[in-house]
Amino acid sequence: MKIIKLIILVLPLFCLSQEQKIKPLDINLSNYEYPFPVQFLEVNNQRQNLKMAYMDIKPSNYNSKNIVLFHGKNFNGAYWETTIKALTKEGFRVIVPDQIGFGKSSKPENFQYTFQQFSENTKKLLDQLGIQKTAILGHSMGGMLASRFALMYPEITEKLILENPIGLEDWKLIVPYKPVDWWYESELKQNYEGIKKYQMANYYDGKWNADYQKWAELGAGWTSAPDYSKVAWNSALMYDMIFTQPVLYEFKNIKCPTLLIIGTRDKTAIGKPLVSEEIRKTMGNYAELGKKTQKAIPNSKLVEIANTGHLPHIESFDQFIKPLIVFLK
Questions:
Q1: Would you state the pLDDT for residue 9?
Q2: Angstrom distance (rounded) from CA 152 to CA 132
Q3: What is the pLDDT of residue 210?
Q4: pTM, 2 dp
Q5: Which residue intervals define the domain AB hydrolase-1 in the entry (predicted)?
Q6: Which residues of the chain have a pLDDT value below 70?
Q7: Per-residue CA distances from 179 to 236, 239, 256, 271, 272 (Å)
């Protein structure tokens, strides 16, 4: 009994010590170093002058092929580090933007987020870099963006790769709508322990290691910053974008060769706490969603990665990168 009481007393102190180790990060991550040099594109969106951060890595053995990597909602361009290194080794030029509202890019307080706006900004970046043809790879929310970009700019998109994209099902059909203010209040409650708990349960099936740890710490670094409320507000606006702007109904219109890379253990779905247990069990079943999406997208191929969750390029890198390089070549 004494041992149990001791554990109960020590556990909050351990959690607190973990929180205290998290480095506070400013709103544009100026005190966080990316794996490659970061540049900025100035864009004017909705009567605001904003800065869009990006990495542009052109290897010495450049094979004249390009690829753009779109990050997910809970991440930024930095988590593509190992993917960038593998692709540049093969001769690909890799462009990795932080979309407006993410990473080192501007965090506007009054903004209507749309996948179309993100796509248009990315097109401006490619125009500035002189890139006329490229492959597009999107992970998670980035998969929704990659799909929208391919639909808007088929003449630019040579190939499309979707890595565990969200939005393969229309959540607004089954999840009660919540206004932006509700999402904002929810985001204000975020901390390291909450982020870790969510990622362990939804991404890694209860597993945890140093690779997973650093991305949780990066997200948590914002939560202890004085201006975290701006980050939380932008995040709330993006939840609304994801819920109200589905792309799955237009998969049939994608014209380029497409590769789906799906970790089949993934059960990620936004809004699970808002529905009954019965409905929750039907959401985010990637083992089925991957097959369904492959049938919906013309000229597409499905690569399933067993025993892997929402982040194949972090959790099962070799199984992710090999089919990707084969597809690109």
A1: 43
A2: 14
A3: 87
A4: 0.93
A5: 66-315
A6: 1-20
A7: 9, 9, 36, 12, 16
Task: Give me the sheet containing 39-45, strands edge to edge.
Answer: 39-45, 48-57, 93-97, 66-70, 134-139, 157-163, 258-263, 300-305
Residue 211: predicted pLDDT: 84
**DSSP-derived pairing of the beta strands 93-97 and 48-57:** antiparallel
Q: CA of 266: how far to CAs of 25, 79, 169, 277, 308, in Å?
A: 29, 18, 14, 17, 7
Structural tokens at position 250:
């237009």
Match 């109960």 to its residue by tokens: 8
pLDDT of residue 16: 43
**CA 84, CA 232: separation in Å to the nearest integer?**
28
d(CA 37, CA 21): 26
What pairing do the DSSP bridges indicate for beta strands 93-97 and 157-163?
A: unpaired
Single-letter amino acid, residue 270: I
Q: How many CA atoms lie within 13 A of 199 on its CB side?
A: 26
Give the C-alpha distances (Å, rounded to integers) separating 226 from 167, 187, 208, 221: 32, 15, 29, 11
Domains of the chain: 32-171+248-328 (3.40.50.1820)
